[in-house]
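Message: Study each token:
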Amino acid sequence: MPEAGAKEVFAEMVASGEAPTVIVARRGLTQLSDAGAPEAIAARYRAGEIGKLDMVRRYAVLLDWDTGEMLPKSTAQFREMFAKRAASKWSDAAPAHAVQAAE
């Protein structure tokens, strides 16, 4: 998710008390589920539009760096793990006002 989207989700989470996963799902920000997206992202990398770090950290797409070819099975596995880790991290996070109330 782009940084601006993450900031919006965080702000809504603080204001509403909803879990980030609920907000992300409601807003349709789960772009990792698009099966066509990994190859399109790989094409953008090959065209020089995005760098290696963006490939992995922002889009969760893995390439063979020597050939520039996308690794579909590895990408699918990484995206599944990435989605689970992100969801568990966000669902465990307490909104700031909840933390303040507990103190």
The longest helix spans residues 72-92. The chain has two domains: 1-33, 34-90. Residues 1-33 form one domain.
